[in-house]
Amino acid sequence: MFQVFKKLDWFFKHYWKRYTFAIISLIIASAIGLIPPKLVGFTIDKIQFETLTMQLLVALVAGYLVLIIVHYAISFLWDYTLFGGAVILERWTRSRLMSHFLEMTPTFFGKYRTGDLMARSTNDLKAISLTAGFGVLTLVDSSIFMLMIVAMMGFTISWQLTLAALIPLPIMAVVMNKYGAAIHARFTKAQAAFGNMNNEVLESVRGVRVIRAFVQERQDAKRFETMTEDVYQKNIAVAKIDALFEPTMQILVGLSYTIGLGYGAMLVFENKMTLGDLVTFNVYLGMLIWPMFAVGELINILQRGNASLDRVNETLDYVADVKNAENVKDVSHVNSIHFNDVSFSYPATEIKQLSGISLKVTRGQTIGIVGKTGAGKTTLFKLMLRQYPGLIGKITISDVDITEISMEQIRSWIGYVPQDQIMFSKTIRENIQFGKGDATDKEIYRVMELAHFLEDIKQLPKGLDTQVGESGVTLSGGQKQRVALARAFIKDPEILILDDSMSAVDGKTEAKIIEHLKTERKNKTTFIAAHRMSAVTHADHIIVLEDGKIIEEGTHEQLMKLNGWYQEQYSQQQLEDGEVTN
């Protein structure tokens, strides 16, 4: 049960001063809280024996007020320090998770779904934070504070009565232990179900257009209702165990009260205790209710925290399958890129996505990559970005193996515009500035001209300050592609990768963007993957991929003379464009 504290020892060691101060303050506040019941008993005895004077009463009331003020001040200190530490843990762990996510490769995101990662980053962190705050409070109150109360009852009133009143405690320990084990198992299942539901909600929101287009609203709502019912049932299972804690505690506390009152009254009749002592004892017994409840709360919180911490640690312990080499080499310029007999298979399959790819690219060249869907174009780019392990052969930059260059340096050279455009829920200006944080409006307008987006920006209600909505929902497919192109252009990267990133724009717009590319990228390396041959006709070298192999390569003119796949596709597309024009 206490394993969760051991797992968090790295945090408690770092903030040991804060937690030491908080626990000591809590103990002092608890000790001060034990004095008033003694004053009450003392006062009752004085009244019973008619020895209470006005001077003594004033002194008792004044002392009581001082205790209240001191207790309040110390309680504020421990509360602020202890729960402030819990908030720090939540913030720190959330930052660690976010940093971890940013280091992970596609393999990780294939294993963990977005909704589940969101659940671990929210609900699970709250449960861990509760452990570091309320969990520590209940630990101290259910152990030290309880012992202090028992000691006061035993040493200052009656050990016999104290032992009799505490008979229900061992029963409580056994019952609470069983409840705790059940809570852990059920809470883990509930959190997993919540993660699945989160994921389904995200998919439904992202795919709302497709859902509406296929008139699947009712089916999707029904599917979501089924999932929420599953989450509900699993949380009800947790709540059922949770609901047993308080009634169990009330029965045991009630039993203690019954013993205390009955046996205590008998001791008073036998003159072994005063009436004031009996009142004090019952006040202490009332104070003992919270520590007894705290035992149950402690078990509940620790089991939830342990389950959540296991889920978070499972995520943090995932080791990225692509890492920097121990001794990375510094490469100042991208003079050449060389694919030397490169083959590759994705981790989950034995089928080769690339096989024997050899290609020499020099600085300033434009390389066109074409082929059927699934030929391996995107895979080639992913290997350049070092997103997957298991590369056979070599990819070198300036004659240095990319595995010996830091990933940060490789990616700083590359401006990547993928097939699936990613738009952040910000303004168009902020989306473009993602490529260059300090870009001015003048620079932004310039790259928008290169991406042929100037006319569109004039028609938008707030220009650059137009919010694009969730995943760019307010923009058309072509607009999103051009904003993504502008974002890459403003970076002015050494290597620009366009992965079928003009598929949603018309032929004339594509031609204008290509013309701008020719002018702007004269001394920089550019890779263009496309299904429209017109996008690569200007390239210095074109490769045709089929089933992960290069089946044709050369310039546009050379490939046209081969009368192969490229010539066939180009001629067909030209014919289709001609028909459309007419």
UniProtKB/TrEMBL annotation:
Membrane topology: Multi-pass membrane protein
Alphabetical list of CDD domains matching this protein: ABC_6TM_TmrB_like (cd18541)
Signal peptide: none
Residue span(s) of domain ABC transporter: 337-572
SMART domains: AAA
GO molecular function: ABC-type oligopeptide transporter activity; ATP binding; ATP hydrolysis activity
Keyword terms: ATP-binding, Cell membrane, Membrane, Nucleotide-binding, Transmembrane, Transmembrane helix, Transport
Database matches in InterPro entries: AAA+_ATPase (IPR003593), ABC1_TM_dom (IPR011527), ABC1_TM_sf (IPR036640), ABC_transporter-like_ATP-bd (IPR003439), ABC_transporter-like_CS (IPR017871), P-loop_NTPase (IPR027417), Type_1_exporter (IPR039421)
Localisation: Cell membrane
Superkingdom in the source lineage: Bacteria
Protein name in the entry: Multidrug ABC transporter permease/ATP-binding protein
Organism for this UniProt entry: Virgibacillus profundi
